[in-house]
Write a structure and sequence with these properties.
Length: 142
């Protein structure tokens, strides 16, 4: 039953407006239509512009793909080094990394979005951007 809101949302998105207003919320659409999806993609007003959500979708893709790739690469490198290389203080480093797992993602979201946004906005190359990953770059972005 915990997936019921998702089911209702998905089924309702394929109904016409008349069917939504007059029908049963849990009923399957009589004549499924993609018109609401197409309208949301290209015509929906967001704020003061009526250009749809397609621009916002591609902005999200531009932010998510580099974040996932960088996080995966750095996580894999750190995991490999911590399992293979025994150095003085490796348990401390492992403990600090484990502690960092308990930091809520929402507290990291805005700084990460700011950094990734600055990469595209100011034309920073990946070679210069690696300083951001290690905390060596300029954290202020206007």
């Amino acid at each position: 039953f915990y997936l019921m809101p998702l089911f209702v949302m998905l089924v309702t998105s394929f109904k016409t407006m008349d069917e939504i207003q007059n029908g049963n919320m849990l009923a399957l659409p009589q004549a499924p239509t993609f018109e609401p999806w197409l309208k949301a993609w290209g015509e929906t007003c967001v704020g003061l512009t009526c250009a749809g959500i397609n621009g916002y979708f591609w902005n999200s893709i531009k932010m998510v793909v580099p974040a996932v790739l960088i996080s995966t690469l750095l996580g894999a490198l750190n995991g490999y080094v911590l399992t293979k290389w025994r150095f003085r203080g490796h348990t401390l480093v492992f403990g600090l990394m484990l502690f960092a797992c308990f930091i809520p993602f929402q507290s990291v979201l805005l700084p990460m979005a700011t950094i990734l946004g600055s990469l595209g906005r100011f034309g920073v190359t990946l070679r210069n951007a690696t300083g951001f990953s290690f905390g060596l770059g300029n954290p202020t972005v206007n």
